[in-house]
Amino acid sequence: VSDSIDFGMVKYSATVHDTIIIQNVEGETGTLIITDLTLSGDAQISAEIPAVPVNIASGSSIGVPVSFYPEAEGDFSASLTVTSNDPDQGETTVTISGSGIVPIITTDISDYTWDEFYMGDTASVEITISNTGLADLIVSDITSDNDVFAPIFDSAALESGASGSFTLQFIPDADALETGNLTIASDDPIT
């Protein structure tokens, strides 16, 4: 039996799989009988546990599929305890671990005010989006709740530590004070 499985860093809401191999070593006499398989620990780690007892002939093995599905950022762990008729290792524990990672979106501007402009004029500002998280960030859309503020943007994928920018145009169409809010759609689970 493997001692441990480390899934490493996995982006939240992604699923990764591995298999724990339980083997009756070639040359051992007799059938290895697994009498209990118990998974305990964090719910983000699951296993497809077969019905017991499981008989494993000499030189044969079975696989127990395990999955890791982090739904948040953090470290997760579980243990699979294998109980058998093995005279040397009647009970063996396999440690399973993984870390959930998330993208974190930040911008260099949280609010912006333009000086006075005349109707028909256009002003613009570059806004930088950064990914300060450990997982890749997908920015799918940027919208404004006021048509006089027009974001110019194509979807973007930003690796951990990367930045990208978009242009926000102000195109006043009336002699009035204009306000608006931008919405940046991304896969950052927090914002």
Low-confidence stretches: none
Global Rg: 27 Å
Shape: rod-shaped
Helix share bin: under 10%
- Mean pLDDT, to the nearest integer, reads 93
Largest sheet: 5 strands, mixed
The N- to C-terminal Cα distance equals 42 Å
Number of helices: 0
SS-based class: mainly beta
Query: What is the number of strand segments?
Result: 15
Main-sheet strand order equals: 1-8-7-3-5
Order of helices and strands: EEEEEEEEEEEEEEE
Percent of sequence in beta strands = over 45%
Question: Could you give the topology of this structure?
Answer:
Elements: E1 4-11, E2 16-23, E3 32-41, E4 45-47, E5 54-56, E6 61-68, E7 74-84, E8 91-101, E9 105-107, E10 123-131, E11 137-144, E12 149-152, E13 156-158, E14 163-170, E15 182-186
Parallel strand pairs: 1-8
Antiparallel strand pairs: 2-6, 3-5, 3-7, 4-6, 7-8, 9-10, 10-14, 11-13, 11-15, 12-14
List keywords for this structure.
4-stranded antiparallel beta sheet; mainly beta; 191 residues
Describe the structure.
By secondary structure, the chain is mostly beta strands. Helix content is 0%, strand content 53%. It has strands at 4-11, 16-23, 32-41, 45-47, 54-56, 61-68, 74-84, 91-101, 105-107, 123-131, 137-144, 149-152, 156-158, 163-170, 182-186. It has a five-stranded mixed beta sheet, with no helix packed on it. A four-stranded antiparallel beta sheet has the order 9-10-14-12, with no helix packed on it. It is rod-shaped and about 90 Å long. The two termini are 42 Å apart. The model has no long low-confidence stretch (mean pLDDT 93).
